Amino acid sequence: MPFRVFKTSCLLTLLFFAIFVIRQVFLSTGLIASQTELAADLISEFFSSTGAVLDLTRFIFSLLFLYGLFAFLVALIALGLLPKNPDRRRIRTITLLSFLLAVLTVLVWVSVYFPVTAASFLKVSPLASTSIGTGLTALLTVFCFVGLVKLFRLKHYRFATFGCLVICSLTLVNLMPFLGAQLSSSVANAYAGEREKPNVIIIGIDALRPDHMGINGYKHDLTPNLDRFLEESLYFEQAFTPIARTYTAWFSLLSGRAPISTGIRYNLQRFEESQLTGNELQFILKNEGYHTIYGMDERRFNNIDERYGFDETIGPAIGAADFLLFHASELPLVALVSNTPMGKYLFPFIYSNRGVHGTYMPETFTREVLEAASSAPEKPLFLALHLTLPHWPFLFRDFEPLPFVEYDPENHFHYSYQLTLNKVDQQFQNIMDGLTDQGLTRNALIFVISDHGEGFMLEADALKGGVAGLEFPTEAHGHGTNVLDEEQFHILMAVKDTAAEGFEAKRIDQLTSLVDIAPTVADRLKLVEADSHFEGESLFRVASCPDCKERYVFMESSVATNAMFEEDLDMVQVLQQGIGFYKVDEDGLAIVRDEVSELLVLKQRAIITKKHIVAHFPGLDEDFLIVNRQTDTWWPSTKYGGDSPEEIVDLMKKLCAYYRNDTGFDRKNLCAGAD
Q1: Same domain, yes or no, for 167 and 215?
Q2: Measured distance CA(147)–CA(73) in Å, rounded
Q3: Taking a C-beta distance cutoff of 8 angstroms, is the pair 618, 601 a contact?
Q4: Number of Cβ within a 10 Å radius of residue 15
Q5: In DSSP terms, which residues pair with 634 in a beta bridge?
């Protein structure tokens, strides 16, 4: 009888899988067709890559295991409901009933926890409640145990023993991380007061625009927790990223050097050991006895992992499979386990992946961070985190309107972006609270930064033309697409030293850059030799010298597609114009094609001061572009109508001197006119 029940259960589970796969294909037909057409070369390279094929094979076996496990549990439930000596008809009927109860339970929980997934169609019904889900789960658990008892009574010892092992293993796998986290937290607290060296904690928030924060007078109170941190910190109001892309910005942060010096000019550049000098922050701190961790909850355009010198990395798996397998999160069983410890091992490209917005739970990534942070309590901690909730597509699993944020039908992305800022603010505070509970913020140097801002072509961001009738695209969507769009490059930067005597929170108006983070750490730890390798300046020295010589920051764009300059952003056009930049390598990683290096000629380059931006656009034959940041006015350099002509000429010379030897720079020979 047990084998007949299990056979029927397997057939029903196969039907369950097929129905939802067909449904998902039907719902995604347009998207899949467009992706297939756009990415034909990528798909071919994917299946030619050993690493990608291995990732896909592992995923298929994980699906088989998960659905096989579901079929086995349905069989146990059916055995718990079956009377003695049932006939075949009764077996089929009871097994079908058990299957439907199990499916209903799965769909209830998916609708409760993941309401934006395609499998959450019960979310508008009274069934979508935790009480109903808990009741169904408890009922089915009882039937499972009754089924196990029946197996022992029927002397099906192998089947019964296997069932016990499955249930015990599931319980152990899903409870151990929580038990281990409690133990690790206690141990970390015990060591917290013994360390002489401060912990170094960097928390980056993707695409966070400082002008959207309450501390800077934004009309909505979206970031109360971040605002509170800034009020207790050295807050650098005029901070800019040297390049407004995540991977390149973080590489500059860790190395203390600008992109032109590191050679890292694009997201997803192929990794080569020669890119690392050994003087990056993670190597320096590791040599000082630190346990070094890098964590990021979305890895599609940032391949930083242990290869870059970190002891440990946190986040979803890295690979081109991420772009393909995220569709599986719409399957009910996959969604259900996606945030469990079991899901971490079965579906590493979905677990803790903000890129899979329908199932991403910030608390899952937070738990991973806190567990890792306390994993080496005897050592000081270097923790570099990047939170990506405010990144496109500006969605998350429990996406709901905020009553105080008005919907803007003309700019839906900006509306959604504001909601993600409020969500990431909560995540930031949960991480800070957890680190504090572990004693890790007691003696710590804590930075909060953003890697870049974000352009939405808002009316408030528009520049006025200084020459009547002359037009130029001074705004663009996204980040790294237009160096004249200041809010793409303006970033959050603050530092708090919890152990320094006499530390005074204040706002600093001097220009700073991400390359100033590494020298700040070296300065705090008195690592004089390390400090000599950096191009930036210690933020403590900048803060202590408000009257020092005015600083300036060099900035460069990535390669911008034409679609990013359209007022109505069309993501299909963005994909069409940008997808050809990438390929899949032998290890299954998505990387930029070697030919992209030739596109350096298309980069925009700029220098920014408190008052001006001077920019070099490769498509212009005669002019640099000049922006007065104080009046939000722009001019071509030959028609400049501002009050600082000598300063503008000096900035043009500085810009030309800095990029003079950069590949593809100034093919129109504009710098000759500046000289």
Answers
A1: no
A2: 10
A3: yes
A4: 11
A5: 465, 627
User: Cα–Cα distance between 649 and 357 in angstroms, integer?
Assistant: 47
Provide the residue range defining the domain that includes 514: 203-316+381-460+474-560
Indicate whether 16 and 130 sit together in one domain: yes
Alpha-helical segments (H) within 338-485: 341-346, 362-373, 412-437
Using alpha carbons, list the distances in angstroms from residue 270 to 244, 296, 307: 19, 19, 12
Q: Verify that 165 and 239 share a domain, yes or no.
A: no
On whether residue 506 sits in a domain, the answer given is yes
Q: Is residue 334 part of a domain?
A: no
State the amino acid at position 452 in one-letter form: H
Q: Which amino acid is at 193?
A: G
Report which of 602, 600, 587, 659 is spatially closest to residue 270, judged by C-alpha positions.
Answer: 587
Q: Do 523 and 641 have their domain in common? A: no
Residue-wise burial string across 324-350, b where 16 or more C-beta atoms lie within 10 A, e elsewhere: bbbbbbbbbbbbbbbbbbbbbebbbbb
Does residue 657 sit in the same domain as residue 516? no
Distance spanning both ends of the chain, measured CA to CA = 91
Does residue 626 contact residue 90 with C-beta atoms inside 8 Å?
no
Q: Which residues of the chain have pLDDT under 70?
A: 1, 25-42, 172-195, 560-580, 595-597, 675
> What is the tens place of the pLDDT at every residue in 220-243?
999 999 999 999 999 999 999 999
DSSP string, 541-568: HHHT-TTSPPP-EEEE--PPPGGGGSSS
For residue 362, is it within any domain?
no
Closest by CA position to 659, among listed 555, 524, 520: 555
- Report angle CA 545, 551, 555 to the nearest 5 degrees: 145
Query: Is residue 112 in some structural domain?
Result: yes
Give the pLDDT confidence of 333-392 residue by residue, as tens digits: 999 999 998 999 999 999 999 999 999 999 999 999 999 999 999 999 999 999 999 998
User: Which structure tokens are listed for 450?
Assistant: 């953003």
* DSSP symbol at 193: T
CATH number for the domain that contains residue 556: 3.40.720.10
Same domain for 390 and 536, yes or no, is yes
Q: Is the peptide bond before 393 cis (omega within 30 degrees of 0)?
A: yes
Query: Tokens representing 430?
Result: 């949960």
Instruction: Report whether 484 contacts 627 (CB < 8 A).
Output: yes
Number of domains in the chain: 3
Beta strand spans in 283-421 (E): 291-296, 312-314, 381-387
DSSP characters over 4-23: HHHHHHHHHHHHHHHHHHHH
